[in-house]
Amino acid sequence: MPSSDHDDHDHAGHGHGHGHGHGAAGAADAKPRGGHSHGGHSHGGRGSPRTQLTLALVLTLSFMGVEAVVGWISGSLALLADAGHMLGDSGALVLALIAQRVAEQPRTEVRTYGLKRAEVLAAFVNGIILFGVALLIMREAVERFMVPVALHGRPMLYAAVAGLGVNLLSAFILTRGGQGNLNVRTALLHVLSDALGSVAAIVAAVGAIWFGTSRLDPALSLVIAVLVLLGGYRVLKETTGILLESAPPHLDVAAVERAIAETPGVASLHDLHVWRISEELDALTAHVTLTRGAHGTEVCKSVADRLKSEFKLDHVTIQPEAPPPDELVPVRLSRNGAAIRRVS
């Protein structure tokens, strides 16, 4: 009869922790069964990131049109680029909101992990948007630098200052409790890059008003585009790692392997896999060969407890395997019941 071990459930905060270890009732020479451990998955507070993203979307959309009109009238590439970036931000925030909603759906028989990867996919698309917007701004900035356009500094300055205020307010909203969510962090990166665009527009407006220069506007736009490009690269690098099921960057897989191997009752291990299901959920599976006399259930629980304690790994599946026999069993080749020769 398999045995199981359950951690305490905290229903008040809607956080569930489970530890399961399954093995044969006998020692290691009996047929072992798999071990599985879940713990510490937090499912509460999902409304907070969605609220933050919604407020940021409303603020972004409300000011995007103003910047676009003033940028067109004043001839400022920095303002037009910022408005275009805000349009990209709006699409990114809509994607993030949809993904946030989809990711909350429960698991099904077809999608056994649920739709947690929807958040990662949305962040991946957002990273591509950042990349594309940056390239467009860079191209236009080079053209404007080669052929300067006359600027109307004062409306450009007023719009840029107001845009900076909107961006800083959106950034403040997004930093209120959602830093652990990949979509919120990606949206925050969009908003901060917008804020940098507003700063560039302010500097360009000051240059146009007091120094009569129009090349400062595309030059600063080019600098901001490079920063946006680097931000998009970081987002794409992180999300691609998750989608390709790379090991979590904060985990030392070699150290994890040593910890499992050093656990009492473990003779050896193989087929160790560590990957990320989503930003907030890492998973591990491994096969361990038991030492003679060790119990599969107890070893699985010891490994899972150690991984949780040392590496904060909660979603762990351990498959115990019986040790190999100490010696080979002699057999005989025969024909029609008569022995031919002995094979050892």
Describe the model:
The N terminus is likely disordered. α1 runs antiparallel to α4, α2 packs antiparallel against α3 and α2 packs antiparallel against α5. The chain contains 8 helices and 7 strands, in the order ββαααααααββαβββ. The protein starts with 14 loop residues before the first strand and ends with a strand. It has 2 domains: 103 residues, Alpha-Beta Plaits; 197 residues, Cation efflux protein transmembrane domain (Alpha-lytic protease prodomain-like), CATH 1.20.1510.10.
CATH class of the largest domain: Mainly Alpha
Radius of gyration: 29 Å
CATH fold description of the largest domain: Alpha-lytic protease prodomain-like
Q: Note the gap between the termini.
A: 37 Å
How many helices does DSSP assign?
A: 8
Strand pairing plus helix content: what structural class?
alpha+beta
Order of helices and strands: EEHHHHHHHEEHEEE
Features:
single chain; 344 residues; alpha+beta; Alpha-Beta Plaits; Alpha-lytic protease prodomain-like; 2 domains; five-stranded mixed β-sheet; two-stranded antiparallel sheet; 8 helices; 7 strands; disordered N terminus
Explain briefly what this protein structure is.
This protein is of the alpha+beta class and 344 residues long. The protein has helices spanning 47-74, 77-103, 117-146, 153-174, 182-211, 216-243, 253-261, 296-311, and strands spanning 15-21, 35-42, 266-278, 281-290, 315-321, 331-335, 338-343. The radius of gyration is 29 Å and the shape is elongated.
